[in-house]
Amino acid sequence: MNDSLYHYIDPQFNYTQVGNYTLLLQLSETTFSLAVTHGDKLMVWRHDSPLAELIQPGEVQEVLNFNYANVVTGIKSAAFTLVPQGLLNEETTIDAARLLDVKPEDTVFSQPLDDSNDVIFKATPSVTQAIQRFGNERVVFGASGWLQAIASSQPSSYHLYINIYHQQFDVAYFRQGKLQLFNTFDFTHEDELAYYTAFVCQQLKLDMSTVSVVLSGSIAHNDMRYHTILAGIFKTVELNNTSVVQQTGSLPVHQFLSLTALSLCASLADA
User: Fold this and answer.
1) What is the fold of 152-251?
2) N or C: which end of the chain has fewer CB within 10 A?
3) Of residues 61, 34, 62, 63, the one with CA closest to residue 48
4) Contacts for 256 with CB less than 8 Å, ≥ 6 apart
5) Where are the domains of the chain?
6) DSSP per-residue codes, 57-80
7) Distances (CA, A) of 54 to 7, 33, 51, 147
8) What are the tens digits of pLDDT across the range 133-190?
């Protein structure tokens, strides 16, 4: 394996043991990231690779060609809608498809998001083509694991959670351990991220001076842009240090939380 292509390879990674490993993939319209886990231990991590590498020859195929025990694929889609559990049926799915502007060539998925909500989301042909080699059986909504990880960390009503990726960000708010709001926004500058985050708080009628923002996702080491602008609006700003995997050494867990948390989604993938 070409170590320079990967951000982390555990010293105990063993080609002969891949039949006991799980491959986690997270796809957006243009990129994908991957992790390999053994139980709850991180074995391999790579992020921000061109989506075309999933179907075109390349050095990353060395990892993708193994026969893993499990493969879970998360699709980052801004075209989604949440439906209270118990209301998901053929009629609501058809209505959601209209709302999401589903084209004949798109693929629509519906599945549980948490104990209270189902999610309906679409994948474009480019994303669908990329996941074909692993099939659609274990495909989940890209934010599902991230939301599960936050929910299990006993979030308070004074925290707002943001996950940043590829000029988009997810925002989630919990009250009494239950998801109250989840949305995705496009942005090109940290000013826009701050604006939409403040807008969410206004919609929720939150006093921003009492709210702490918890960040994860594509935030490089020493990149303080988001901290700086958000700190002028909110009580505190911090990186999310929640970890769902064990790893050797010191890694920026906030960068791969959404990816590795897909390991929590096995029941959703089978639903």
Assistant:
1) Nucleotidyltransferase; domain 5 (3.30.420)
2) C
3) 34
4) 33, 35, 42, 45, 47
5) 152-251
6) -STTHHHHTS--SEEEEEE--S-E
7) 18, 10, 6, 26
8) 887 778 999 999 999 999 999 999 999 999 999 889 999 999 999 999 999 999 999 9
